[in-house]
UniProtKB/TrEMBL annotation:
One of its GO terms (molecular function) is ceramide glucosyltransferase activity. InterPro entries: Ceramide_glucosylTrfase (IPR025993), Nucleotide-diphossugar_trans (IPR029044). Its EC number is 2.4.1.80. It is found in: Membrane. It holds the Pfam family Glyco_transf_21. This is Ceramide glucosyltransferase. One of its GO terms (cellular component) is membrane.
Amino acid sequence: MELTLAAAFASSALLLSNLASIMLASSRLKARRVIAVPSGKQPPLSIVVPSRGVEPFTEETLQRAFSLDWPHYELIFCVAHADDPVVKLINAAIARYPNVPARLLTGDDRISANPKLNNCVKGWEAARHDWVILADSNVLMPKDYVQHLMAAWRPDTGLVCSTPTGSRPDGFWAEVECAFLNTLQARWQYAGEALGLGFAQGKSMLWNKPMLDANGGIHALAAEIAEDAAATKLVNGLGLRVNLVASPFEQPLGQRTFGEIWSRQARWARLRRVTFPLFFAPEILTGVAMPLLLALVAAASAGISLPTTALCVLLIAYVPECMLAWAKGWYLSPRTITAMIVRDAMLPAIWARGWLGGAVEWRGNAMIIRTKAMTELEESV
């Protein structure tokens, strides 16, 4: 009896925390809306875009970057190697939009073991304006991209960022990626912000350049292997807050394979484990695996139907997730719940992988992630 009650209580508590996180995230998130450029003079800004390789939506994301309705902005594209095939597409876009100030910078500044951060250094140093956005090349910027970021800036803000929301999946494994990005990772990030535990996400990061330069500049983000983890610690150390945009920006996915998802999630898990171990440890309790296991233990002890118990747990877990996605305009399909089940089946293995050493993959590179940004980076053969 005691085992039954304990397992039932623990399962219920985890399901309630899952529901609470959805409600907290929903309170912070807003349905997508267009923000007009505020009246009056607006500050110019620089958008630094680190790029590597050609992806399925590269031409569209480039076109979006050149089509923002902010009055004055410059684009600085950064590519580590001049022979990268994306260089041709960037140069063509620069020529196609002569009215938007834009430059392409090549070369690699090895200030850390983080390839993306190294690629950004030259762009940060070349930026002409006091406001700088570091934006990943696969962010699908809406026309009011800058307005959304600026609207989230407050007097006590040190950084504004946006988690990516997956869109346009092509195939089932891309739908699994949507399940990871949207109603799991984005949901918990917004729930954390609601609790005063906001943390950075490197997809889109709005900085006040004089503020960061006064505290070590972009080199300060090399303090951790993940630049967003370093950013979070730096901003919190200054007594400032990390704020999220009210409506996160899309990342179109296209096709994905199981191997690609595993590699990416294993890398992120290992990074979280190294940079924020106390927050990473309870991640095993997210998802449905633990409450389902505990509920089945309680049902077996009480003689209750196991299939009925499992169905009830899945409905309690996934219906609110789907409602959150529907309310915020995120991707939904008839396969979404199946994708969520597969995601949650992967989570315990991903969590366990985060505690182990060894190499993880980053765009063809084998990364061995250690604590205190002690990382070896080897080119894969």
